[in-house]
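Most newcomers find our protein records easier to grasp once they have seen one. A record pairs a protein's sequence with a compact description of its fold. An example says more than a description, so a record of this kind follows:
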Amino acid sequence: MNASYGSVEYMRNSRPPRIRFGISITNDSGQRSRFFGFCGQLRLVLKNTDPSIADVDSIILNDIIDSENQVLDIDHDKSRQLDLNFLLDPYLKNIIENNREGDLRFRIYLYCFRFSNIEQNPQIVSEHCHVSSRYGIDIEIPRSKWADILSEAGYDKYQLIEIPIDYGDIINYSKTLEGDGFQDRIRKASDQLTRIMREMDEGNWRKAVGDCRIALDALILGDVKSVDGRKISVVNAISELLSTSGFPEETVTSFNVLLKQIKTFTSTQHHIKSEAGKEIELPVPMDREDALFAVTTVATVINLLSRKFARTHGLT
């Protein structure tokens, strides 16, 4: 079996977006055969690499699949058209864009089965090959064509920015800070974060948001002993830490305002006055996106303060 690249296009109205590769299959087995069970491995050819290093200059994106279960009956030395689909989710799209310079280069390795209809000895064998193009085994898509595909898929309307957060690393690092001063507050907030992550796993969004407020209280309320033995408020300890790390005064002020605002956001109750003039509490609806915002913000605050404390006190 030989395979050659023919075309690529966006499948209209597909959600999540899918792109379709058109591939020509040629039967070089010497006899009429049926080809089926098609699957391809799609690789992204990396920019600025040495093409002489095989299988190191590309990364696996995902499979391209035959969603229609096509069976191609092909005479010897004849060709048929095959369509394979690739799910272009936002994460893979970002991987592609982060490793692309100008025109886009893919590589496809194709697998399938071949049934030879020989009366004396019918058999099914596996077939595999690289999909060739006029550039060899690399499929080059012009930047203008790729831009059209992204536009049709709706990626010109929004951008996904992924911020990878290793909550486990944040928690574990915070717990390594020894002492009974501000670092103790960081450890207590980090302990609370452990419980919050459990609530997120259980889908208890409202409880997770409320416990973010508890984590913030553990971090910023009350007084602590400074390194030089003074008793100061935690807010002042945070301000001194950020100033020592090199932040200007306006940045320190903005950070403290942020802490107050995220604490307000994590309140799961709000107060209104009834017709009788009495204050009553009403629950605030909290969904997954609210919980993600609160947890991510609190976790990054803990991470920032932990790292700056360790750096400014020579612990790294």
Remarks:
- Helices lie at 90-98, 143-152, 167-175, 182-201, 205-220, 234-244, 249-265, 288-312.
- The longest strand covers residues 33-45.
- The chain has eight helices and 13 strands.
- The chain has a mean pLDDT of 86.
